[in-house]
Design goal:
Number of helices: 12
Shape: globular
Order of helices and strands: HHEHEHEHHHEEHHHEHEH
Number of domains: 1
Radius of gyration: 22 Å
Strand content: 5-15%
Amino acid sequence: MRKFLKKICLFILPCILALTGIIYMDFFKVFFDYEEYYSDDLFVSLNREYVCLKTLENKAEILQPDSFIFGSSRSQAFKCEDWKNYLPDSSVTFHFDAANEALIGIVEKLEYLQKNEFQLKNVLLIFDIGLLTQTDFKTRNSSLTISHPAISDNSKLDFYSPFLSASINPKFVTSYFDYYFFRNHRSYMGQYIANTKYPNIVNSENMDVFYGKEKEIKEDSIRYYRKTIESGIFYDRKELKKDTSQISHKSILLLSRIKNILEEHTTDYRIVVSPMYDQIKLNSTYKETIDSLFKNNKVFDYSGVNEWTTPLGNFYEKSHYRPHVARAIMKEVYSY
């Protein structure tokens, strides 16, 4: 029996030490609280939704935001300071986005804010096809997209498991320490480690992200776009694809929940369907449903082939459009 217990201890002890080390390193900043989650030397991608949530929790009494931007990382084209030009002077803005955001995620964020007695005076909803088709938290189980139990039905085990799994991935650990010591992004690192000439800058109060790529473009736009074209980031759009997704009953229910919350708070809102490089037009079943639920002068669809999706210079790459596009969109949607 004693030998058996000794063998068990010899097996468990290294596991405990490894787990302690992972938690102590806290690569993804989820095991401890931080005053500031983004720093100049950060090179690991954090769970954006979690960081926004913790920032809101930590600074809610000081900031007291009453105006919110929701969406995926594409919503970062819309800056709070630009948005404030169209809001009452007393408005306090906050960017509550998530990586690869889901429709269910926006609903749960709104309900979280309602439950915690935040005012919802102004809301800007940035939709896209990928966001509208995601209706289940359980499919969002990576370290970048997993939702915290405070705004989802995930358990703590559900939430922390992806971070533990990623933290013991040999490729990630090797990439982390390789970059930490040598500050050189190598091809094998892939998306584990940020690969930008200039770092992204984050406003720690309203959570706007200013992409380093914007600075790179302004420095030498010809070189930037030549590089992205040659690397295949931008592709030929001669043969346009169609959005074949059909709206589900669950999507309709989620959109209805958004509508009810906004109406309950008499929120001044706008819904923008993002202009996308792929130029795929939002399926009519989604457009008709959104139009029927929300006021006509509050919904604006920029998907498909148009003046914003055609120029290459409106995009950083095939997924994200630039702030000057969002500024033009805001000027239009707030002219009604």
